[in-house]
Specification:
Strand order of the largest sheet: 1-3-2
Bound molecules: zinc ion
Structural class: mainly alpha
Oligomer: single chain
Order of helices and strands: EHEEHHH
Number of domains: 1
Shape: globular
Helix content: 55-70%
Length: 102
């Protein structure tokens, strides 16, 4: 069974939207410029032109497609606990998408 398709329109590329009040507050609070959430990539308004950041968040979406809903979110939590944010394999992969060019 392909858990990736259909569910929350996840097989469709997420919409890239500027953070409103709520997400702006959350992102600034945790010190992030953007975040992937199901169906969307939310980016701070002042970072909307940052192509690398978009590549970073799109990479998280590809991880989500590749590993499935449960696999992705469980790994995200586990990697955070096991390796910390900076050294999380998902983050390392996303950073190479962000800064590695292509
Ligand atoms: Zn990331």
């Amino acid at each position: 069974m392909d858990v990736g398709s259909g569910e929350w329109g996840v097989s469709v590329a997420p919409r890239i939207v500027a953070a409103g009040r709520f997400w702006g507050w959350v992102l600034r609070r945790v010190g992030f410029d953007g975040v992937y959430v199901p169906g969307r990539i939310v980016i701070l308004p002042e970072c909307m032109g940052d192509a690398g950041l978009v590549r970073h968040e799109m990479c998280h979406w590809r991880q989500r497609m590749r590993d499935g809903f449960v696999g992705y979110w469980v790994r995200t939590g586990w990697y955070l606990v096991r390796y910390g944010y900076e050294r999380s394999p998902y983050e390392c992969e996303a950073r190479s998408a962000q800064f590695g060019g292509e």
